[in-house]
Amino acid sequence: MSYPQPVSCDEQRRRRFEDVYAATHGPVLGYVLRRTDNSDDAADVIAETFLTAWRRLDDIPRGDEARLWLYGVARRVLANHHRGARRRSALADRLRADLAAAEQAPQFTGELADIAVAFRGLPEADRELLALAGWEGLDAGQIATTLGCSRNAARIRLHRARRRLAGALARDRVRQQPSRAHAAKGDLA
């Protein structure tokens, strides 16, 4: 006679979760889709909802009450999601306003404006290296760690990026000089 093998607690939890998931996924997905703006947001909310279900598996009621319990979880996850979206939107609006004001400030004219134009004209890799060194204050070893390369490679890349920035600034100055010279001739006439 063969006796049934005892089922471990982990196996029981997994089976219980799979049963709850199978019975409630469709209705909870519909609930979330009707309350989100896009499928990416819905996927995030669903994932968080069922992660909570896994963590609180012992709190989930049996039968149809499980669906209602998960609606409540999804409702709270959605509220957090919407609050986060509002905070991100408010922050983005505030940053846009700050940047617009900063671009109008006197320090963004003249030489700094020329540097900004030259910097933006560099390849992304050069901009990142120069930003890590200049704005973040990292040395070559720290840059190497950040970029996942050797210290020597970081030093060489940084040197080349600085040289390209200097070249871009020199080209911009050469382009600007004829117009200044022309304006000076016009002043003499």
Explain this structure:
There is one protein chain. The model has no long low-confidence stretch (mean pLDDT 86). Helix 1 packs antiparallel against helix 2, helix 2 packs across helix 3 and helix 5 packs across helix 7. This protein folds into two domains: 94 residues, RNA polymerase sigma factor, region 2, helix turn helix motif (Rna Polymerase Sigma Factor, Chain: A, Orthogonal Bundle), CATH 1.10.1740; 83 residues, Winged helix-like DNA-binding domain superfamily/Winged helix DNA-binding domain (Arc Repressor Mutant, subunit A, Orthogonal Bundle). The N and C termini lie far apart (116 Å). It is elongated and about 95 Å long. By secondary structure, the chain is mostly helical. The protein has seven helices and no strands.
Helix content class? over 70%
CATH superfamily placement of the largest domain:
RNA polymerase sigma factor, region 2, helix turn helix motif
Q: Which fold name corresponds to the CATH topology of the largest domain?
A: Rna Polymerase Sigma Factor, Chain: A
**Which structural class do the helices and strands define?**
mainly alpha
Enumerate the spans where pLDDT stays under 50 for 5 or more consecutive residues.
none
Number of contiguous helices: 7
End-to-end separation: 116 Å
